[in-house]
């Protein structure tokens, strides 16, 4: 039996050819697996993402993450010669000071100065795992800074996707609004404006939250006992109107469907013991793995994730929650079922990760 707290239990074989390098065209033509656990139905592989309209109820509430990916990858020059990469993670003081991931970390230290174009980047302090605090030589306003990034930054595509600035528009949801993410909320990349209009025409209500995707979402879990994993904090917020809508739906026992693990983590981060949602903003370190008791979401739209990632652990936790798993043995059985789905998807040549296919779990 699998140990649900052992990192190796979340490993699986994935051929390189199953990693999607480009999105489906159109976006909503990707594959969709539907796993209705609450009604004990077998996983259904026979859908395209635009078929998701068949699985919504008129009184559902769909929650989307409206974060916007910024061109966070900066290629800089070192004073002693050579190139370095500065990967912006989150602002620390307006937009002039940032936490960043630098490469090669062994050559970039506190006190160093990097240049990019006519601008200087000062390395203020250094931390483990290549993380540095940096500052720009300009006191940018928000609009000025993001204009600056648009001119000199590159799309921060995941390392398993070949660098291509032509994918800049593809690596953004059609409803992206709030600048701040260094990675896309990938489950929502499947939506088109036309599909969203069809969903609302069914009577489904759509509301938005924000989580700026950072290092916490995509950094691999390193601890062999996953309970020891310390997830990197990410900024998230829930508007008052969204909170009021969610609480109204919960009080009427209507379904809340989260699109993506980022939306799910945001909702659960603002949940109270009595299963209500709070509004506001915070930095969250919520790490969800099997045994977590979900308080807000009733359904989850998600992609097929990296082996040993915190994301596949969250999906396993939600599947266990929907199956009413109570002990480690039951959680292990659900994880086996999830990994069997992943194995079947590989055999059927489904596409994985950011530009890959999706699943709906209810």
Which SSEs are present, and which pair or pack?
Layout: E1 31-35, E2 44-48, E3 61-65, E4 67-69, E5 73-78, E6 83-93, E7 97-103, E8 113-116, E9 119-126, E10 131-136, H1 142-152, E11 178-181, H2 193-201, E12 205-211, H3 215-218, E13 234-238, H4 240-251, E14 256-259, H5 261-269, E15 280-284, E16 299-303, H6 310-322, H7 328-347, E17 358-361
Parallel strand pairs: 1-17, 3-12, 3-14, 4-11, 14-16
Antiparallel strand pairs: 1-2, 5-6, 5-8, 6-7, 7-10, 8-9, 9-10, 12-13, 13-15, 16-17
Please describe what this structure looks like.
The chain has helices spanning 142-152, 193-201, 215-218, 240-251, 261-269, 310-322, 328-347; strands spanning 31-35, 44-48, 61-65, 67-69, 73-78, 83-93, 97-103, 113-116, 119-126, 131-136, 178-181, 205-211, 234-238, 256-259, 280-284, 299-303, 358-361. The protein is an alpha/beta fold. The strands form three sheets. The chain has a nine-stranded mixed β-sheet with strand order 2-1-17-16-14-3-12-13-15. Helix 6 crosses helix 7 (328-347).
């Amino acid at each position: 039996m699998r140990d649900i707290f052992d990192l190796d239990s979340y490993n699986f074989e994935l051929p390189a050819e199953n990693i999607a390098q480009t999105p489906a065209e159109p976006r909503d033509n990707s594959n969709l697996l539907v796993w209705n656990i609450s009604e004990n139905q077998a996983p259904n592989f026979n859908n395209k993402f635009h078929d998701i309209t068949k699985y919504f109820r008129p009184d559902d509430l769909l929650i989307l993450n409206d974060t916007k990916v910024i061109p966070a990858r900066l290629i800089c020059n070192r004073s002693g010669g050579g190139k370095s990469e500065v990967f912006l993670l989150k602002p620390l003081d307006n937009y002039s000071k940032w936490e960043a991931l630098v490469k090669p970390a062994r050559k970039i230290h506190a006190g160093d100065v990097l240049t990019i174009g006519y601008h200087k980047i000062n390395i203020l302090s250094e931390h483990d795992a290549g993380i540095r605090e940096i500052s720009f030589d300009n006191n940018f306003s928000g609009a000025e800074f993001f204009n600056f990034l648009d001119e000199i930054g590159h799309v921060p595509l995941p390392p398993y996707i070949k660098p291509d600035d032509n994918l800049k528009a593809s690596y953004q949801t059609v409803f992206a609004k709030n600048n701040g993410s260094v990675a896309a909320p990938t489950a929502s990349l499947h939506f088109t404006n036309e599909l969203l209009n069809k969903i609302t025409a069914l009577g489904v209500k759509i509301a938005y939250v924000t989580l700026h995707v950072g290092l916490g979402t995509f950094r691999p879990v390193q601890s062999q006992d996953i309970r020891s994993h310390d997830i990197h904090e990410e900024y998230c917020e829930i508007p008052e109107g969204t909170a009021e809508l969610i609480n109204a739906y919960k009080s009427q026992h209507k379904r809340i469907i989260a699109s993506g693990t980022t939306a799910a983590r945001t909702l659960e981060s603002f949940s109270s013991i009595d299963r209500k949602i709070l509004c506001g903003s915070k930095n969250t370190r919520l790490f969800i793995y099997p045994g977590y008791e979900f308080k807000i979401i009733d359904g989850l739209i998600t992609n097929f994730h990296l082996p040993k990632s915190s994301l596949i652990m969250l999906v396993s936790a939600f599947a266990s929650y929907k199956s009413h798993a109570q002990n480690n043995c039951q959680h292990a059985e659900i994880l086996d079922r999830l990994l069997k789905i992943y194995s079947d998807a590989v055999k059927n040549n489904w596409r994985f990760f950011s530009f890959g296919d999706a699943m709906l779990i209810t």
